Automatic annotation (TrEMBL):
It comes from the Bacteria. This is DUF2796 domain-containing protein. Residues 1-20 form the signal peptide. Keywords: Signal. InterPro entries: ZrgA-like. It comes from Pseudomonas atacamensis. Residues 131-141 have a biased composition (Basic and acidic residues).
């Protein structure tokens, strides 16, 4: 199953290229091996349904989920990070799956420098010094959430509703979705006003 999600970025590169340009593009595409650029307000969701297994991978700039991207040092910032993490730990509340599908969480994994995870080896520009010796802090923290569900009746899994993602994290304006199911691959963009996907 993991192969399906890993194949998504390569299979859908033409779609990614269409979304890669934005006014916030600080040439940081190389930092994250994901679709599109790091763009505030925009999240990405990869979804793959294989038999009874549904996998969801949500990637978002931390700005969308906690309101900042720097390390949480103040009590207020730490509380925001803890609250966002608590929400992300309830995927059945975030992703409204049809009850008739009988989906249960099998595993979940949350990663972010804000959660105390070490940054990727590719994120080597965190505290680069320029030729004049001045340090530049590139705070482009992302939050990655990976969920695996087992669905007793996958035939009933005909929609995926992201309304609660937008309600829980209102700074998220749109989510670029790549979906693989028995009917093939599709890419779409959802917003709070149009937050339902069809499998």
């Amino acid at each position: 199953m993991r192969r399906l999600l890993l194949a998504l970025p390569f299979a859908l590169l033409p779609l990614a290229a269409a979304h890669a340009v934005d006014e916030h593009d600080h040439d940081h595409d190389h930092e994250h091996g994901s679709l599109g650029a790091h763009e505030h307000g925009v999240g990405r969701l990869n979804a793959a349904l294989d038999g009874q297994t549904l996998e969801l991978e949500l990637e978002s700039p931390a700005m969308n989920l906690v309101g900042f991207e720097h390390a949480a040092t103040s009590d207020a910032d730490k509380a925001k990070v803890a609250a966002a993490r608590a929400q992300l730990e309830k995927p059945l509340a975030l992703f409204s799956l049809p009850a008739a599908a009988g989906c249960k969480v099998v595993s979940q994994e949350l990663e972010s420098p804000l959660f105390g995870d070490k940054p990727d080896a590719d994120d080597h520009d965190e505290d680069e010094a320029d030729k004049d010796g001045h340090e530049h802090h590139h705070d482009h923290s992302e939050i990655h959430a990976h969920y695996q569900f087992s669905c007793a009746t996958p035939g009933e899994l005909n929609t995926l509703n992201l309304t609660n993602v937008f309600k829980t994290f209102p700074a998220t304006q749109k989510i670029q979705v790549q979906l693989i199911s028995a009917t093939g691959q599709q890419g779409s963009e959802v917003t709070a006003k149009s937050a339902e996907l069809k499998f």
